[in-house]
Amino acid sequence: xxxxxxxxxxxxxxxxxxxxxxxxxxxxxxxxxxxxxxxxxxxxxxxxxxxxxxxxxxxxxxxxxxxxxxxxxxxxxxxxxxxxxxxxxxxxxxxxxxxxxxxxxxxxxxxxxxxxxxxxxxxxxxxxxxxxxxxxxxxxxxxxxxxxxxxxxxxxxxxxxxxxxxxxxxxxxxxxxxxxxxxxxxxxxxxxxxxxxxxxxxxxxxxxxxxxxxxxxxxxxxxxxxxxxxxxxxxxxxxxxxxxxxxxxxxxxxxxxxxxxxxxxxxxxxxxxxxxxxxxxxxxxxxxxxxxxxxxxxxxxxxxxxxxxxxxxxxxxxxxxxxxxxxxxxxxxxxxxxxxxxxxxxxxxxxxxxxxxxxxxxxxxxxxxxxxxxxxx
Length: 377
What we know:
Blueprint lengths: L35 H15 L3 E6 L5 H14 L4 E5 L2 H14 L5 E4 L12 E5 L10 E7 L10 H10 E11 L4 H8 L5 E4 L12 E4 L3 H6 L5 H12 L4 E4 L3 H12 L5 E4 L6 H9 L5 E4 L13 E5 L8 H8 L13 E5 L4 H19 L6
Parallel strand pairs: 1-6, 1-7, 2-4, 2-5, 3-4, 5-6, 8-13, 9-11, 9-12, 10-11, 12-13
């Protein structure tokens, strides 16, 4: 939390000289290699940071966005620039912090989120939730905005304002996303926005393309204590094969009804949602393969990786399943090099424009990956 403030509370700022931080000769310890697609994007990040420009990295789910940033961060630190990676969600900050500390072990790194211990630490590299950017004014030479399409950043204008205010007047802004909104996609196509795509995953296999299956009025069937027969068949096939599965539902009450039905088929089925106090432990059980099937709302549409899963959406026509959400959901499958494929099925009671756009975006990225030689035939 930022803490409560009223109009009679004094706000204290600092306009003196910034503390001098010594940058070691050896800045980066990361020794990994980038794919051909990542190399191009990495070079563009370096150039944008050096030239204080804006640039969008449009990278498919599982392309390895974090590693693409390392050379740009190293270049900024070597030039004694102050850099911030901002993301809408705390769990992403917590996941990125150890990875960046391992890549830049000699560099002081501040990790900022609600309740963080680092809030008074002045550091050349800061990782923060977008809410925490409200603390800063003209502070950073470069801001890398991760998951720019994610809630709450997309709906809270104050967060977008905070990102602008936290930048120095001359500074770089790097946007990262797998799913830019329609306006940004149009700007990319018409040359109004500088961007680089990474259309393929590092393991060189295509993104799983969702299959659309009509399942009738599934909500009405759930009210009667049943699930559509083709949904049940799909689920039973995965259970018999002992294949881990994520099944997405648009609303919690419907998911809870489905859970009661499916538990009769197999006891190792769990359900999770944003208000669930056991959310973290259930996701961990799924990682540990103690849970065979996890029913979920859109909270698991991004930011979680299970190595070998199939994915289904029940009620893909619901308005909560936007183009962005559906692309992210499909992106949960086939992420690991040991299991680069996976089945993605959208069960629906009528196709929507968002469903069609999501499928089109995935097919387009696969085609581009093939044309650029980033996918194996």
